[in-house]
Design goal:
24% strand, 4 strands, single chain, 2 domains, 42% helix, S-adenosyl-L-methionine-dependent methyltransferases
């Protein structure tokens, strides 16, 4: 796919990765530039980026395409295109390892706790419990939570009590 001419001038060469997992073939293309750094009213701008994600659902052949733009304080010397792509992918691991687990294991999205500091406190307690279980090598958080609910001794043992 060709980009408009101005993309070529501002965002030179493309760095590309392709992964196949979870029934999808995903190609990520990232372009970085420092040409806009002084133009942007953004403190500490190190570089701007254009990230294109293209996903093909293997079973159906359906294609999804998304283009996002970003600004980072990291300079090209601190993070080349490969590193920026890696950092972007790492961001989603937080979503998958924490927020998704909190929603699935604790049904957090339907929580009725909504006032004052209580939502933050509960999120911190849930994160603590998930982190504690992960430190002990638990792979399935939901089944470990059920086991701790059945046996308070197991939960106390995890806390070192």
């Amino acid at each position: 796919m060709t980009s408009p001419l101005w993309h070529t001038a501002i965002f030179p060469p493309v760095y590309e990765t392709t992964d196949k997992a979870h029934g999808r073939l995903e190609t990520r293309r990232i372009q970085i530039s420092t040409l806009l750094n002084h133009y942007l009213d953004f403190p500490h701008c190190g570089q701007v980026l254009r990230l294109e994600r293209e996903r093909i659902i293997v079973k159906t052949g359906k294609t999804e395409r998304e283009i996002v733009y970003g600004i980072t304080s990291l300079t090209p010397a601190q993070a080349d295109p490969a590193r920026l792509l890696q950092l972007n992918r790492g961001h989603w691991s937080i979503e998958n390892r924490s927020h998704y687990v909190r929603d699935m294991a604790y049904d957090e999205d339907r929580s009725q706790i909504r006032t004052r500091h209580a939502p933050r406190v509960m999120a911190a307690l849930r994160n603590f419990a998930i982190g504690l279980l992960r430190l002990t090598g638990v792979k399935c958080i939901a089944s470990a939570l059920r086991a701790c609910a059945r046996s308070t001794r197991r939960a106390l043992h995890l806390l070192g009590l």
